[in-house]
Amino acid sequence: MLPAQCESSGQIHKRDKEDFFMSLFSGRNFRGTLLLVLAVIVTSGPVLAQGDGATLFKSKCAGCHSADGSGTGPAGKAMHLRALGSADVQKQTDAQLAAIIADGKSPMPAFKDKVTSDQIKQLVAFIRSLAKKG
Fold first, then answer.
1. Which of 44, 64, 69, 79 is the most buried (most CB within 10 A)?
2. Mean pLDDT across the chain, nearest whole number?
3. pTM of the model
């Protein structure tokens, strides 16, 4: 059941809108609606975190590591950076990656004064997403 629309203005009648939303949470529809809402909440968390990490990576890290983490840009080539999706990088623990981001590793500067600990976790999650599918 969809809300009826007013033919003259395209506006949804207030009563029809209320009936529509009430029907989502009544009787047999409630269970399906609840499951749908829970599924969206559960599956959107990691995606949002990864999206935040990707945005942060692009603003703080891509200048040297390239937008895709490959390190193939001019700065990455000059510093001989490993691809962040490589086995060498991916075999490190989350704590090791977080420490490198926070404290730096020559020639990479420390970022502990530039990003929060939550942002470091987001960056680690993003780096994990770059793992090569093999």
1. 69
2. 79
3. 0.62
